[in-house]
Amino acid sequence: MLGAALPASAAGEISVESISTQPAAATTVAAGTYTVQAGDTLGSIAAAHGVSLEAVFTANGLGYSSIIYPGQSISLGGSAAPQQYSTQSAAIVAAPVAAPVAAPVAAPVAAPAGNSTGLSTQAAAFSPVATSGITATAMQGLGSAYVYGGTSFGAWDCSGFVQWVYAQNGISLPRTTWSQFAALTPTSNPQPGDLVSQNGGSHVGIYLGNGQMISALNPSQGTLVHSVNAMSVDGYYTR
Fold first, then answer.
1. How far is CA 191 from CA 128, 176, 187, 236, in A?
2. CA–CA distance, 197 with 162 (Å, rounded to integer)
3. How far is Cα 112 from Cα 137, in angstroms, rounded to an integer?
4. What number of other Cβ atoms are within 10 A of residue 120's Cβ?
5. Phi first, then psi: what are they for 206, rounded to 5°?
6. Whole-angstrom Cα distance, residue 38 to residue 55?
7. Which of 160, 137, 168 is nearest to 216 (CA)?
8. Distance (Å, whole) CA 10 – CA 184
9. What digits encode the pLDDT tens for the residues 162-180?
10. Is residue 163 within 8 Å of 173, Cβ to Cβ?
11. Taking CA 58 as the corner, what is the angle to CA 55 and CA 63, rounded to the nearest 5 degrees?
12. Predicted TM-score (pTM) above 0.70
């Protein structure tokens, strides 16, 4: 790499096999332009052609910290240099060198953007212990969207989902998680249809049995079946 005062042959990034050890004569490729040779600096180019260094800077969009390369066309004044040599923040970017392509390595599938739980949707095939009543109603919402603050079918948040399911079974529950827990009775022996309190009471779902539950999780995953152990469990609540 070359700078305003750095010889073209000074930096290790340039292979010595590709550059003559004898400085080449200055080459003009077109009127008002100059082709950079090994050993050139912007200062030496300007002096050799009777123009000021500042004029070369201005014509090429360069500066004192800029880097030039052998074979690069430098404008000696007037029109700006070709776009491939214009710079931002006074740095010229060399053409990238192709890197060896490594053999692909299988990587774990990342959770979708916005997914704060990373829960697998594979649990959606789970069959609840009870196939009627609250659990059956809850399974009708499987795959539905999550909408923060929502309470209608297919557009609900966690407590809105629970409230809707219970309402279809003739049970009126308050709107928020803590109010729902307060309206029911704590139990250490949860049954299908009971509520599951998670994450310090900030999340609620409906217990399906066999350690599984269904809940409206987040916008990226929506409403799905998952293990009760996917998040910390605070307790269970029954009617």
1. 11, 22, 9, 9
2. 11
3. 27
4. 15
5. -115, 125
6. 22
7. 160
8. 78
9. 999 999 999 999 999 999 9
10. yes
11. 100
12. no
